[in-house]
Amino acid sequence: MLSMISEIKENFDVIVQLKLTDKSKQSLTTEDDKIECIISISEVDCYNRYNKGINYIGNISKIPSGAPCLKWSAVVKHPLHNYSEDHNYCRNPLPSTVDRPYCYKAGNKWAFEKCIIPVCDCRNSTQDLGYHGQINITRSGHNCIYWKSATKYTSEGQNYCRTPGGDSDNAGGPWCYTGLTDPRWDRCNIPVCESAKCPDLSVISKLKPLDGKTIYRYGEIVKLTCETGYRLIGSKSLTCQKSGQWNGTLPYCQVVTCLKLRTLPKQKLDPVQTIYSYKDNVTFKCDDGYELSSADTITCQSDGTWSNKQPQCAGVLCPPLPKVDNALLPTKIQGYRYPETLKVTCETGFVFDGSDLLQCNSSGLWGFIPQCKGVLCRDFPKIASIVTSIQATKRYRFPASVNVSCKAGYQINGSNPLNCNQTGDWSTPPVCTGLLCPVLPKIENVQQIENRQYRYPNSIMIKCMTGYIVNGSSWLKCSAAGNWRTPIPSCKVDLKTQEKSLLTAVAVGLGATFVLIVVVICVVVFIRRRRSPDDETRSKPLKDPKSTDVYAQVSKKGDIDSSRLSLQITTNGAIYDNQNQIEEKREYYSFAGDIKIPGTAISINDFYDYVDKGRGTKGPIEKEFAKLKKDHLKETKTASMTENTGKNKYKNIFPYDETRVILDLQPGKAASDYINASFINGYGQVKKYIAAQGPLELTINDFWRMIWQNDCGKIVMLTNVFELGKQKCKQYWPDPKTKTKTYGSTEILLIDEDVYSDFTIRTLKIVKENQSKTVKQFHFTAWPDKDVPRYASSIVHFRHKVFSSKVSPNGPIIIHCSAGIGRTGTFIALDYVVNEANDLKYIDVFKCVETLRRQRVNMVQTARQYVFLHEAILEAVMCPNSGIPSKDFPDLYKELMLHDSSRNKTKLQVEYQRMNAMCEKHEDNVFDKGKIPENRTKNRDSTILPVEYEMPILSTFVEGHNEYINAVFLPGYKNKKAFIVTQLPLDHTKIDLWRLVYDHNIQTIVMLNQVKEDTDAYWPENQETPIQIGAFKIELTAMESKPFCTCLHLTFKYKTWDERSLVMCQAKCWDDDAVVPDSKEDLFNLLFEVENKSNNGDNSPILVHCLNGCDKSGLYCVLATVLERLRIEQDIDIQHIIKQTRNRRPQIILNYEQFQFIYDAVLEYLKQFETYSNFQ
Fold this sequence. Notes:
Elements lengths: L1 E7 L5 E7 L1 H4 L12 E3 L61 E3 L7 E3 L3 E4 L45 H4 L4 E3 L7 E3 L4 E3 L12 E3 L11 E6 L3 E4 L3 E3 L12 E4 L11 E4 L10 E6 L3 E3 L4 E3 L13 E3 L11 E2 L12 E3 L1 E2 L3 E3 L4 E3 L12 E3 L11 E2 L13 E2 L2 E2 L3 E4 L4 E2 L11 E4 L24 E3 L6 E4 L3 E3 L12 E4 L2 H34 L3 H5 L2 E3 L9 E3 L13 E4 L2 E4 L24 E2 H11 L5 H6 L11 H4 L36 E6 L2 E8 L7 H10 L4 E4 L4 E2 L2 E2 L12 E4 L2 E10 L3 E10 L2 E10 L11 H13 L8 E4 L5 H19 L1 E2 L1 H9 L9 H16 L5 E2 L3 H8 L2 E2 L4 E2 H12 L14 H4 L30 E4 L8 E5 L6 H10 L4 E4 L19 E3 L2 E10 L3 E10 L5 E8 L12 H14 L8 E5 L4 H19 ...
Helix pairs in contact: 5-12, 9-12, 10-11, 10-12, 18-19, 18-20
Enzyme class: hydrolase
Protein name: protein-tyrosine-phosphatase
GO molecular function: protein tyrosine phosphatase activity
């Protein structure tokens, strides 16, 4: 507490002494033994003389004259500050002029007097050393003694606390002597003269005084506001009171809040809050398929409004409507958004192929584009004597037109072309009528001839009147050229008497001759029956007219049965039946007796065992190869001439002089008759082949001269132009783009190019000297460099294709590779031995190659080729039913269904066993990839693993996954990688399946298993919810349901890369526990649906999967390939196709039920399309 003692001084000063009571000492703070008391002048009515009372705000209004003070509001001369005007208390607004508070006297507002106000006994600040007040008590409570009784500073008056001496004594403030021994002196506690200070307002968050001050004292008024983004709650101003407290309740600042945001459809907010305050940012995001109408972020502003309107989510905008051929689209072309769906209408004559809905999908693209296809026309009408390119399997749609042509001798009558109409009917078909022959002239003495028009192939018999005979042919036939085939006869007189005599003489002569012949025959028979039996069995050499070597011997004729249709071969206890089908037309010769098998020959019955045991490196077959004579066996003088060496690709491979092909000399060009090519004899046919070196740049013109000169119709090419980066042969035909190329005086035109899985067939037209010839080039593309084809079946099928194709030039077949000896010799030997085996029933590979090497150097060049030759011969001889014409299949099927009582099996079952024995045997190491530890868990069935070199490689990087997947490529008929078969993915291999789809550009998936668990699905269940598998996002854009399958239209995207689309066809016609489908008809429909959906230009594979990637997938791919070949070739080869697929997936068609199902399905297919079996 403070006590106050007042003393009136002169000049009206009153000193107000402030003393500390004991109780007040306790409230003083101690810091480094310095005790300071700061007194607020507002607690006592006195003024601070140190600042001339500028801050005096007391209530004294007394002046010495005793006159009352005027209110300051009545005075306008001096501006007031810091207090209210409406009072008359003493104040000092002019401290620069007046040294204490004053006021203006009443009655004279221009005169003022200093007021009578006590002076506060305090010092100006804690640093003030000039204290002159009257406090005489130390901080410890001791009384000060008079300075004059002290030993120092005796000049000081009284006993008040002072600061005498230098700064060193007074640094701690005023002091005095106590008169005690301890303490002898002590410091005084002198209050600091200050007005009352109110609490600091800065502690109130975001509150801000308008004048920017931080300290306010008694009487001061502060006007308040809040920082930006906050609003003031409470009074806008406060007054500091005497008590040092603010009047009223303290205001506070409340953050500004913005209006509540709406919940809009398809929109998400971040963050989600009930209240949003100043500076809060809200980010908006739309569901997939939707986009914001404005900026994605808005901010709550200081005035409680949002920086922008809340955006809305609208479906992503799709581009203008795509063009849909033959469809009627709405007039509105653009402005469609997800998920708008349009129903499209086809034009008259067109129907939908799939869904009729066009949907704007979530990616901003149009999903499945409906296709309006022409209505399917009925079966092509039957027109007698028609010649047309119509394929039996082709289905025609509106508005297709088919040009019809008639066979030779006929002409079109009626409308041509034949049009498929919008009703699905064909226009009225034309008629092929025979060409009209000229009207017969009048023939004298002829019996009456019908007076009508005669057409091809009409015939008329000419009869003369009695007494006349026909002079010329009695039959006149209208020819295909529209003229009479023979000269028109006449009737001449019949000289009966003369002719009768002549005929009698002739009859007698003929009778005598006949009797003589009968007598001679009887004598010869009698003599032969008297001959010794030993003479009949004696062997003697016979020149085989079908071979260039003498190694046939004549024996008992009765032992040869060339008409035999079956061959029994026993292998590992199984019996196989082999129909002997002759593939090419050959000349046959009669033998006087049986042909003994040479020492190097093998009976057909034993050949399977021989090859099976002789395979492998350094096996019996390779050892036999080592015995063959090699290098040049005959003279090569012409080839070695200096002018010809540049025409030889290899310096040690020349044609023999006696077998070389000799070209016609060109005028002025010496040695222009040379080409590195040799005539080679076939079995039973001289100069059947020409084995040639692949053309060089220098020899392409000579190559075409050779073909023209020898009237060659077929070229067999067994090398690629480039292999392993090296040119093996110069391309000697035009590119598909240019279509034509000229070599010397010869122009070559590319008419057609047909690509198959292992070979390409090109039709080439040669134009020279205003003449032309058409040849076919058969280009085998599956022969790897420095090796042999992986599967013998490929070259066997190729050979069948070469020799079953018909061409008009019938000269030698040109066969070449690079050098014209290795692959060329192998192919020629294959054809030679197969033809020989079909005739003689034994196989002599060694003798054949030996014979070929006497015609061209080192034919069948390597031991590996020699072994492969044996495997190919075995394939060709054991499985000769390559390409059964479709018209013959129903009869063959009946034959195969017959029961063989001796074997207690049908013939088809025997065929199945024989095929199993002939299939490729894989080494165990080809499955090693699927057996390594990191891949074992990726296989559903450990017995079904991919053949490593047939497996599609995964290249897209995914952490923890390698390039392996349990899948293999399977060939179609024309595409070597038409299918990829795989298993239903496991949960941890779903990412690998999508990598497979992505890496190999899959556009169609065929699913043959049924989904039993939710975890099986690797696609979205609905269109609203896409799924994410690793870095792949998959969406369902459309769905089509059909009786036999469900088609899902999917889009997928890898990371942020371009979006792709595909179709998945899920079969409904095949239960999981069924070996074969429930319905052949449904399977056909599924095949057609997939074919239509996968009709893409880049030949990407179709992905087919079932549970284990084998059982159902294999049957599906085999049947698809069988029907593909049927449509192209009009023939059927089921076993060859099964073997081709087993080479890649050995477990395919491993039960007889599926094997028979394929035969049954083909028969059913032919019944549905009868035109197949009638195709000519």
